[in-house]
Structure formats: C-alpha cells, structure tokens
Amino acid sequence: MTALLCLILIASTASAASFDCAKAATAVEKAVCASPRLSALDDELAAAYRGSNDREAQLRWIHDERDACESDTECIEGAYLVRIAELRLARHTFARSKPPASIIGRYAENDDYIDVARARGNQLVVKSEVSFPPSEHICSFEASPAEWVSNELRVAIFVPEMDGKCVLLLRFENGKVSTADAGNRCREMLCGARGGYSYVVLPIVK
Q1: Residue 189 near residue 159, CB atoms below 8 Å
Q2: Long-range contacts of 18-24, Cβ-Cβ distance < 8 Å, separation of 24 or more
Q3: Is the overall model pTM greater than 0.85, yes or no?
Q4: Rounded-to-integer distance, Cα 103 and Cα 124, Å
Q5: 3-class SS at 152?
Q6: Where are the domains of the chain?
Q7: How far apart are CA 114 and CA 6, in angstroms?
Q8: pLDDT by residue (tens digit) across 28-79?
C-alpha cells in the first residue's frame, strides 16, 4: 500500500465529513450517514485523530472495532466513544470543555450511588455502585476520568487487566442523573448479564 493510498483510506473511513454519503458502500458507512449522532461522533474522531502518525492503530480500530459492528448503531456508537477517549487521553486533549458546576455531587437512592467530583482542570472523576435485585448483583467502578462534551458527561472506564474499554454516558436533568451504555460495553466489563448501567436514574442528594 502506498503512502498516498493509506492517507486516502484514512480520510475516507475516519470521518463522515470526508466521504460522499451518496457513495457509502458498507453497512457502517451507511449507518454513520443516516445518523446525526454517529455523524457528529465521526467528526469528533476526525478532529481527535488529526495530526496523529499512528495510522496502523487507526486502521486496526476501523477494521476490528468499528466495522465489526456492521449495522448495529449502538455498537458503532460505543466503538466511536472509546476511540475518541483513547485519542484525547493519549494526546492530552481530554476535557477541553468546562463542565457546569451544577452536575457536581452525589446522586443516590438506597445503597445505589454515582459520585461526580472535580479533578484537574476541566476533568471530573466519577465512581459508582448499583445493585440489581432479587439477586443483588452489583455493578461498580472506581474513580474514572470524565469529560463534558455536547451536554453529556463521558466517563472513560479502562480496565487493562481485562483488556476492557467502555465509555459510560451521564446525562443530567431536573436534579437527576441518567446513564446510557452504548453497545452495552460497560455492562460486559462491569456487570455481567444480570444488570447494567443502561437507564439507571438517580436523584442528586448533595
């Protein structure tokens, strides 16, 4: 593969803005073009990747992570979120936007909680534990870095010993936090089959 061809391949697969959606050929390309959410994430990824020299890693991600999702939009979203977080953390561009002060605090009900606390600069840290009756199966994670992007808090949860990576989404409204787990990547890492962080809702208590 020539250097020029490699550059063209990167440009045409890494950003929705860089390929003609009328010519989208793969299931993933068609899904990205059809979804404003995925198109926006694709643009974010292109910006996070810009200037990187690690073309092989990006091509591996496209083939092994993104394109493996085929037409599953939740899976595609989860893959994008993880890759964006990886690139931003590695290049020290994580958490550029200032989070609103109103989201800081503990969100809890009974023994379930999500703690959102300040860290360095614009970065926040989040830790949580929730249980799922009747088996009282517990999902939890220790403090993980989080960044405020487009009115949501993205929590990057990387577990090297499990080779696991996911990004949990926290959204805030009317004094409550709700969670979303694109592609159920966090459930597979943190919870197993009997619970998960999709659609957990907790009120702020302090």
Answers
A1: yes
A2: 18/46
A3: yes
A4: 10
A5: strand
A6: 3-90, 101-203
A7: 43
A8: 999 999 999 999 999 999 999 988 888 999 999 999 999 999 999 999 999 9
